[in-house]
Amino acid sequence: MIDLISELLSYHFIVRAVIVGVLVSLCSALLGVSLVLKRYSMIGDGLSHIGFGALAIAAALNLAPLAVAVPVVVGAAFLLLRMSESRRVSGDAAIALASTSAVAIGVIVISLSSGMGNDVYNYMFGSILAMSRGDVILSVTLSIAVLALFVLSYNKIFAVTFDETFARATGVHTKRYNMLISVLAAITVVLGMRMMGALLISSLIIFPALTSMRVCRTFRGVVICSAIVSVICFLIGIVISYAAALPTGASVVAVNLVVFALFSAVGALLHRA
Amino acid sequence: MIPLITCENVALSYDNKIIAENLNFIINEGDYLCIVGENGSGKSTLMRALLGLKAPSEGTITYGEGLKQTEIGYLPQQTAVQRDFPASVFEVVLSGCLSQRGAKPFYSSDEKKLALENMERLKISDLKKQCYRNLSGGQQQRVLLSRALCATRKMLLLDEPVTGLDPVVSSELYCIVKDINKQFGITIVMISHDIHSAADHADHILHLGGDDVFFGTTEEYKNSEIGKAYLGGHHHD
Ligand SMILES: Nc1ncnc2c1ncn2[C@@H]1O[C@H](COP(=O)(O)OP(=O)(O)OP(=O)(O)O)[C@@H](O)[C@H]1O
Ligand SMILES: [Mg+2]
Hints:
Chain A is mostly helical. Chain A has helices at residues 2-9, 12-37, 41-60, 65-85, 91-113, 118-125, 133-152, 154-162, 164-169, 174-196, 201-215, 219-243, 248-272. The chains are: A mainly alpha, B alpha/beta. The interface between A and B is medium-sized, with 28 and 34 residues.
């Protein structure tokens, strides 16, 4: 095991992937608690598909992928939030429309520019090789910003998540914090997407929150537990993916699934006791 | 007398359907106003309008100088918290202190003390670490009341606060509310179906109900047609 890990860490690209992956797992787990409880988990899913479209276009135009995808997805987050707040359009239908359209556009752009092949596969399911040095620096900076903002607005995020009406009635700028949550989620999704894949990144948001809600009874407990679970699942996932030559994203999701099952069992036992 | 809230010709409606109209009243600092009326007469809607959560379709609601939204405590009629929301009682009560925090990110020890005091007032200190969603309806109501008290600086709006409370806690609640009204000069607006307790404690009554809207002091209400009809029939003990 020790040998395996030290072998792993001798590859620069894996070290990069681990650094970015741990930070993204942390960010997505923290934001995930609020997104899941606010019934916004679909937004995370929608954003990752829109991110896929944006990455495809950036690649076709030979632009820096993150520099294109981050603003596009943050813009999309604003729109999706607006949609789910307005009662006219049904939110989940709108998100489904936007995300499938973005995937369609992305696939068309890729097949026009380079032909379908490895690229699409990598975007969809992620690739550990995707991170360049510049990407790593940008990812680390952004994820630290996400973490800092989350910690600083933790109490507000709790209030807005628990009871938005009360928060608004007593003068908390709930719109601002809803925006903050979805912008942070958008950045996280883009950062994690190329490693985890567009199809799998949203599970990084949803799984840790659901897993810790099986066992923890307080908001703070759920937040802390999600963060730990998420990072550990990521690390186990990446080791397994290396050892068994499996795609990283899928391995991480599989580990999350197993841990979710474990926590569910523990939760059921605790309830009975 | 400093007017905190002035309503002029206010009408409230949902989707062009008018719920209540011709509402004219003033809430002064230190008042204890009770809003009564049948189910569906628009009491909760009016309270939401007073809180700025809903815009009146006609007329104006003006706030007196020095009343900031962050100084208002509020107990909603229903809090649609999801069944599986993980939150401890203390976390919920403490979130009432949030509005005065401004940009400061973390709670101070004074605020934690305030939250504990308000839990003590409503006798839920022993529930501190419990999960909010596993409490009984009446216990949840007390938690939300403690939260509202934490947010209260100048004004407290309560939408049917005694619903689900046992008689002992109900009458204690009326005392607590009366107390913070008299002792700290906090303005109270309470919606209640318990008209007799309302008449006992409040100094002003607003009666909603279709075309006849009544607003006046409790004495005036007791002598008015609508008040007699509403209060009468039952014997006051
Ligand atoms: N979100 C809404 N959309 C449309 N109509 C609404 C909405 N909320 C309330 N109404 C309508 O407005 C009217 C007044 O509702 P409101 O909740 O203010 O009554 P209330 O006086 O508080 O009644 P209760 O004593 O039962 O609490 C009702 O007829 C209700 O159907
Ligand atoms: Mg009501």
